[in-house]
Design goal:
single chain; 479 residues; alpha+beta; FAD/NAD(P)-binding domain; Flavocytochrome C3, Chain A, domain 1; eight-stranded mixed β-sheet; six-stranded antiparallel β-sheet; 18 strands; elongated
């Protein structure tokens, strides 16, 4: 491995690939390292949802849109808890990034763009994704990376992680790397770009940066916070770890493994009206199950003990309600009860409560109250979907938890994507893009539809295309 590079990119994922591609296209000698045995990072777990205003896709469908309208929607949905400078950069450059993907083979789902999908809707149809989720994005970017590797501008080293940043006189001058076989080396570069992802796969880092909420995640197992910790060790500011909002809701395959969460429960009333109820450890309902705002339901779950709930129904509901799981067929669900650690079944309400570990008196009173609401068609939470009472044994419950696919906290950067120190001053030669910045940096304590993947691509593109400089840049560009 050569020891001196124009640009070192740490992480070959959503932000790292476009950084390397566009820097390579400008003639930089780029070293791209990746800890995994494959490129793509979180794109292997992501649904790949992207939001941009003024795209070719919108124009094709006759949709009028503008970045200012997108910005206003983000401010509205986040209740103003949205970093405006970085948000503006992400939004004003989003259409060019989205169109770049489309020009290079990305094909949006035929029914897109839409105004909303799973989270709070925008006022305009600007929300799109591909048929293979995040992999659709990777399939568009990978040939661009391969082309730069073939040209010799980008060198990709796999199964190699950064162990620390190298500094001199307060400036970053390179990184120490470690291969999977344990061999270490120091490599030097004029620019170091951290695109290492978040920390939602690390119990230790989560406990330190987001201590007030339990870790339950479904994410890239390489999201261990290593880039964040390495930057902090050279003076970088790390913040927004407390700006966490859980997703609603996942099932733990192993109650003792916080990384074992899987989705699939269809709890969004836009897609399936609820027949079941959701209760907390006290056996009490805590939210209107058919509330049209997922943000309201997520915040309600966030406040529950252990960030957990039980999805409760009886035999009558099981037989008659629309199927509630997108990944497991109806006939297979029955076989999970009392065998899977999160699926419970009993002949009485009291026995069900005991198996679940919830308050029996509370659950029994809740079902009585709910049955009265079904009879009167008046629910105290304002629930409108009241199809039938609980009146037929056996009774069922599925333990579900608030979980995350992204970590909230991370590094702060300025408008040039330079990493800032604790005094909000840029650390020389150190840049960052993607989840290493933290989800909350551009979303606040909510989920802004499509504002995770595309900003990472956009910041990476801008870094490679415009922001990074190196000795010999002008002569290389002239060639």
């Amino acid at each position: 491995m050569e020891e001196n590079w124009d640009v070192i990119v740490v992480g070959a994922g959503t932000g790292g690939i476009p950084t390397a591609v566009f820097a390579g296209q400008r003639g930089a000698r780029v070293l791209l390292i990746e800890a995994d045995e494959r490129i793509g990072g979180t794109l292997h777990w992501s649904s790949g949802q992207m939001t941009a205003a003024g795209t070719k896709l919108q124009k094709k469908h006759g949709i009028e849109d503008h970045p200012d309208w997108h910005f206003d929607d983000c401010m509205r949905i986040s209740n103003g808890d949205f970093e405006p400078v970085l948000g503006r950069i992400a939004i004003e450059n989003a259409a060019e990034s989205f169109d770049w993907l489309c020009d290079n083979g990305f094909e949006p789902e035929p029914n897109t763009p839409v105004a909303g999908w799973g989270h709070e809707p925008h006022r305009t149809r600007r929300y799109a994704w591909g048929p293979d989720g995040g992999l659709s994005i990777l399939q568009a970017m990978e040939p661009q990376l391969d082309a730069e590797i073939a040209r010799g501008t980008v060198t990709l080293i796999m199964q190699t992680k950064m162990t620390r940043l190298l500094t001199k006189d307060g400036a970053v001058i390179g990184i120490e790397v470690e291969a999977r076989d344990g061999e270490k080396a120091e490599v030097f570069g004029q620019n170091v770009v951290l695109t290492t992802g978040g920390y939602a796969a690390s119990r230790e880092v989560w406990a330190e940066l987001t201590p007030n909420h339990p870790l339950r995640s479904h994410c890239n197992p390489y999201s261990r916070g290593e880039g964040i910790l390495a930057a902090r060790a050279v003076g970088a500011k790390v913040d927004k770890g407390e700006q966490f909002l859980c997703s609603y809701a996942g099932v733990m395959q192993d109650p003792n493994d916080p990384l074992s969460v899987r989705g699939g429960l269809m709890l969004n009333p836009h897609f399936r009206r609820p027949w079941e109820i959701c209760v907390n450890r006290q056996g009490k309902r805590f939210v209107r199950e058919d509330h049209p705002s997922v943000d309201v339901r997520e915040h309600a779950l966030l406040e529950q003990d252990g960030m957990e709930m039980w999805f409760v129904f009886d035999e009558g509901i099981r037989q008659n309600a629309p199927h509630f799981h997108s990944e497991i067929e109806r006939e297979h669900i029955v076989g999970l009860f009392n065998k899977h650690p999160s699926y419970f079944m009993a002949d009485t309400v009291e026995e069900l409560a005991e198996k679940c570990g919830v308050d029996g008196a509370g659950l029994k009173a809740t079902l009585v109250e709910y049955n009265e609401a079904v009879e009167s068609k008046k629910d105290k939470f304002g629930r409108e979907s009241l199809p039938r009472p609980f009146d037929r044994a056996p009774y069922y419950a599925i333990r579900a938890v608030g979980f995350t696919v992204l970590s909230p906290g991370g590094l702060n950067i300025d408008k040039e994507m330079r990493v800032l120190d604790t005094e909000n001053q840029p650390i020389a030669n150190l840049f960052a893009s993607g989840e290493v910045l933290g989800k909350a940096r551009i979303s606040g304590k909510t989920y802004l539809s499509g504002m995770s993947v595309l900003p990472a691509i956009t910041f990476g593109r801008l870094l490679g295309q415009k922001k990074l400089t190196w000795r010999g840049l002008n002569s290389a560009a002239a060639e």
